[in-house]
Amino acid sequence: MSLLLPDSGLLFWMFLSFGIVVFILVKYGFPVILKMVEDRKAYIDNSLSIAKQAHEELASVKSEGETIVDNARREQVKIMNDAAQMRDTLIKEAKDKASVEAVKLVEDARKQILIEKEDAIRDIRRQVALLSVDIAEKVLRGQLEKKDEQLDMINRLLDEINISKS
Asked: Could you tell me the residue range of the domain that residue 96 belongs to?
């Protein structure tokens, strides 16, 4: 036997064992391997379609989010404008009410001043009258110290009363 040329029997058994191994692999091994490769391919294709669908949903959600944010911004601007308008209205109403209240307070103060002024004038007149009576009494006492002077004064007053009645 030479190393370069094997024996024909050895070649036969080698081909036969190789054929059996190839037959077993083709019959039982390759279908399992091909099935695993097909399953793996289906899993990858399915994952790619799910990823594509998720990407589309993400884009849709992002678009909806942007729409919601835009709507929220518009609503915020509207609310701010309404609040500013309401603030201005409330300030104007408060100013008008304060103005009316101030006019009313001034008018009430004027009325109160007039009432107090009239009371003061009445009080002053009463005091002047009392002082006049006191002064007149003191003057008359000084002048009418004698009984004759008192009688003359009484007669004069009676004459004046009689003249004014006529």
From this structure: 12-165
| Model confidence pTM above 0.70 | no
| Residues of the chain below pLDDT 50 | none
- 116-162: per-residue pLDDT in tens? 999 999 999 888 888 888 887 777 776 666 777 777 777 887 787 77
Q: Does residue 31 fall inside a structural domain? A: yes
The answer to whether residue 54 sits within a structural domain is: yes
Spatial contact of 144 and 150, defined as CB atoms under 8 Å apart: yes
Q: CA-to-CA distance for 16 and 25, rounded, in angstroms?
A: 14
CA-CA distance, 144 to 137, in Å (whole number)? Answer: 10
Please count the structural domains in the chain.
1
Q: Please indicate, yes or no, if residue 1 is contained in any of the structural domains.
A: no
Residue 146 φ/ψ region, left for φ over 0, alpha for ψ in the -120 to 50 degree band, beta for the rest: beta
State the Cα–Cα distance between residues 138 and 127, nearest whole angstrom.
16
